[in-house]
Design goal:
alpha+beta, Heat Shock Protein 90, 2 domains, about 65% helix
Length: about 375
């Protein structure tokens, strides 16, 4: 099933806002409750000793002042949420311009309710520029602070979403490259196998050719089923390797000896698909084919310091041929580099007496 394409729309998904809206309402309610408590302690409480003090009016005015501020902040939140996907300079301009307008409205509401509720005057009675200006500076500062908080919240979410999209795009690009590198292996293996089947048919060894063709079909079916993705588990890699070796045993008979010894705690390790087969194929080509006597290929895997170590060794001529590296080792390094971002080691060495050894090491991660 094809994966859904990455959205290029910078607006946020509804589920993001559902979580963010919860944070917003929590912050808004606590903020304005704190504002009311501060005003009560700083302005209303010190006036208790005044015989003309209108406590009921002051409390009602404080309630109206806090509720109106909360509503205006909600309007500001809605506005910034709609424009946060615009370029930053435009978003900043409209955010703080709207904060200026809402601060002016908030100031009028506060001053008017104070006149009407606390002093029983008309809403605009006895206004002067000094009084209005003093109140306005505080109202404007209040709206600017809330605007800055909203802007940081929303813009931070935007950056997080863009970062997630970038990471997702990078991962999909890595998967595509790993898949492309994997597809380079199948034609190489197919050519060798079909050439062997053709040779068997030419020699009129039809039973072995038919057996080899059946094994090849089974291998390709298993390969396509298990490697639809670019990564798999070591357990499945071993299964795939055994299928491949069963094909080669039809070709080489008793000349090919195999010893696979893999620690059980490594079987769930994440590895690139078809990691082992091309390396073993190289070993067969340069260690088994040139000899008339039986040859041995050993495959081992174990964990050391939370790293998976894989060793593939043979008892061939022993001289490492650079031309024998071919697509196998080169492709292996490229795919490991894509999967583990350079945190891997691949070495190819001649054994002291005979044969060659490939050592692979990379971080142990369990396949999901």
């Amino acid at each position: 099933m094809p994966e859904a394409p990455i959205s290029t729309n910078l607006e946020f998904e509804p589920q993001v806002f559902s979580k963010q809206s919860h944070q917003f309402w929590t912050l808004l309610i606590l903020g304005w409750v704190g504002y009311a408590f501060f005003v009560f302690l700083a302005i209303i409480r010190p006036q208790f000793s005044d015989p003309n003090f209108n406590l009921q009016g002051q409390l009602l005015n404080l309630l109206l002042e806090s509720l109106s501020g909360l509503v205006l902040c909600y309007m500001q939140w809605r506005l910034i949420r709609k424009i946060v996907h615009l370029p930053m300079n435009i978003t900043l301009f409209w955010s703080f311009f709207s904060a200026f307008v809402l601060g002016l409205i908030y100031n009028i509401i506060k001053l008017s309710s104070f006149k009407v509720i606390v002093y029983n005057q008309r809403w605009n009675e006895a206004w002067n520029m000094l009084e209005f200006g003093g109140w306005f500076l505080f109202s404007l500062a209040t709206m600017f602070v809330w605007t800055a908080i909203f802007f940081i919240m929303l813009y931070n979410t935007k950056l997080q979403k863009e970062h997630e999209k970038l990471l997702r795009a990078q991962n999909e690009a890595k998967d595509a490259q790993l898949q492309m590198l994997r597809y380079q292996l199948n034609p190489h293996f197919m050519f060798n196998t079909m050439n062997a089947i053709s040779t068997l048919i030419f020699k009129e060894d039809n039973d072995r050719a038919n057996e080899m063709l059946d094994k090849l079909c089974e291998f390709m079916r298993y390969s396509l089923d298990q490697n639809a993705k670019s990564e798999t588990s070591l357990r499945r890699e071993i299964d795939l390797l055994e299928l491949y070796l069963s094909i080669e045993k039809v070709r080489f008979g008793e000349r090919l000896k195999v010893d696979i010894d893999v620690s059980s705690d490594t079987l769930n390790a994440k590895v690139p698909a078809m990691l082992l087969q091309p390396i073993v194929e190289n070993a067969i080509k340069y260690a088994i084919e040139p000899k008339k006597e039986p040859g041995l290929i050993q495959v081992n895997a174990w964990l050391i310091d939370n790293r998976l170590v894989i060793r593939i060794s043979d008892d061939g001529p022993g001289k490492v041929q650079n031309k024998g590296l071919g697509i196998g080792i080169k492709n292996t390094k490229e795919r490991l580099n894509n999967m583990f971002s350079g945190d891997f080691e691949v070495s190819l060495e001649s054994n002291q007496k005979q044969g060659a050894t490939v050592l692979i090491s990379f971080p142990y991660m369990q396949v999901h």
